[in-house]
Amino acid sequence: MERTTSASTRSTGRSTARGMRPWLAAAAAAALSLPLLAVSVAGGTGAAADTGATAGTSACAYGYTSQATVWFGADVDSGVPNRETRDGCTVMDEIMADAPFATHGRFVRTVDSVTRDLVREQVLTSGERRDIIHAAAASRVGRPHPVTGTRSVDLSAIGLVGYTVRATMPTDAPGTLAALAACGFQNIEPSGGAGSFYGYSAAELAPLTEEVGMAVPSLGVSLSNLQNDLDLVISEAHAIGARYVRISGSSSWTLADYSRTASLLNEVGERLRAEGITVAYHNHGWEFETAEDGVTGYDVLVRETDPELVTMELDVYWAASVGVPATDLFQRYPGRFELLHLKDLAADGSFADVGEGTIDFAEIFAAAPLAGVRYGFTEHDQPSPDGVTSACTSIGNLAALRY
Fold first, then answer.
1. What angle do the packed helices 387-400 and 169-182 form, to 10 degrees?
2. Higher-confidence residue: 16 or 57?
3. What single Pfam family name could you report for this chain, choosing any that match (predicted)?
4. Long-range contacts of 285-294 (CB under 8 A, 24+ apart)
5. Domain residue spans in the chain?
6. Which residue has the higher pLDDT, 232 or 49?
7. In angstroms, what is the C-alpha Rg of the chain?
8. What is the per-residue pLDDT across 354-390, written as a single tens digit (0 to 9) for each?
9. What pLDDT is stored for residue 57 in this prediction?
10. What is the structure's pLDDT at 58?
């Protein structure tokens, strides 16, 4: 499979820490209460108390952050600041108002029209408009991503979410990891909390994964870890070679809570980026069901986080379980999904091994370049007859998949 490396560098001199190989270049909730979101992080101010406080007072409440740039994917960052325009909106809000776009031409024409008006209104210079149009034209937005049935999955970018084998990892981690490696897994994403992954610290787990030839691109930690133990999170990631740390949210959050979380992720992301680590958010279904005026909690997280600092780890099962196809999200938010949780949805709504349910993984893999995917981790929340068998079935099906 053809591979390319893409890393965007902003005109401000801020460079991304995502120097890994993109994937497919060819082609349990932390029930945390709201007060926790105000805890300061590593001497910083924590999630901004004012974020979301003016929700509903602008035309683009919970819109794209003005702290980022006009950005259509990791390799097509215009470098132009995402300035505020009118009524609390930004350049990206104006451009992406009609997303997803049916064709690439329609997207570029929209960018051309919007930026022409913004030059007239002195929000953009002519040079900035030119840079934005150039980025739009180079992007994958609106382009077709057909399933040809001729491409195979790059298994070197496939891993397993450790939650699948949580029953055996605490008692026989070496044996579990050896069995996973034997059936083709080259990566694993341990789940737990900083300092304790199935009873191991990352430093203790590292030699076990190394012995069987498995890499650890990502660690699953808690939101509380980011708020209160960021130095430990960094230490754990470095100890095992993880380039991502991911967290989940709470089903009780309002849109204002998602906005505060986005602010926190941006702040933490700045610190982590200096350490070569990217923070990721892993969804369940409730992020798509919490909504106001057509804006969901997931929309808030994606729009209000800086793509240079924060990425999304899309769980395709949970999104599909509430009627949101992964490919629709890829079209709406190109380049924002560096990590995927690959879980299948059975016809009755339960979990299934990858390739045994109703989700069209060929379509997901075909559209992965648009999404910016680098790694996919298979997962089964209720594996049968056991975690290793379930995991091996999933990777076997991915090995046979042609997309």
1. 20
2. 57
3. AP_endonuc_2
4. 285/318, 285/319, 285/321, 285/322, 286/29, 286/249, 286/251, 286/253, 287/249, 287/258, 288/319, 288/322, 288/324, 289/322, 290/253, 290/254, 290/255, 290/258, 291/255, 292/55, 292/56, 292/255, 293/61
5. 62-98+101-141, 155-400
6. 232
7. 20
8. 999 999 999 999 999 999 999 999 999 999 999 999 9
9. 59
10. 81
Query: Which residues in 107-123 are b (16+ Cβ under 10 Å) and which e?
Result: bbebbeebbeebbeeeb
Architecture of domain 155-400: Alpha-Beta Barrel (3.20)
Model confidence pLDDT, tens digit, residues 36-82: 333 333 333 333 333 333 444 589 999 999 999 999 998 999 999 99
8 A C-beta contact, residue 7 and residue 19: yes
Query: pTM score, two decimals?
Result: 0.88
- Which pLDDT tens digit goes with each residue over 331-360? 999 999 999 999 999 999 999 999 999 999
Tell me what pLDDT residue 39 has.
35
Which three-class secondary structure string do you get for the chain?
A: CCCCCCCCECCCCCECCCCCCCCCCCCCCCCCCHHHHHCCCCCCCCCCCCCCCCCCCCCCCCCCCCCCEEECCCCCEEEEECCECCCCCEHHHHHHHHCCCCCHHHHHHHHHHHHHHHHHCCCCCHHHHHHHHHHHHHCCCCCCCCCCCCCECCHHHEEEEHHHHCCCHHHHHHHHHHHHHHCCCCEEECECECCEECCECHHHHHHHHHHCCCECCEEECCHHHHHHCHHHHHHHHHHHCCCEEEEECCCCCCHHHHHHHHHHHHHHHHHHHCCCCEEEEECCCHHHHCEECCEEHHHHHHHHCCCCCEEEEEEHHHHHHCCCCHHHHHHHCCCCCCEEEECEECCCCCEECCCCCCCCHHHHHHHHHHHCCCEEEECCCCCCCCHHHHHHHHHHHHHHCEC
Asked if the model's pLDDT at residue 7 lies above 60, the reply is no
State yes or no: cis peptide before 81, omega within 30 of 0.
no
Q: How far is the CA of 356 from the CAs of 304, 346, 375, in angstroms?
A: 35, 7, 21
Inter-axis angle of helices 297-304 and 255-273, nearest 10:
30
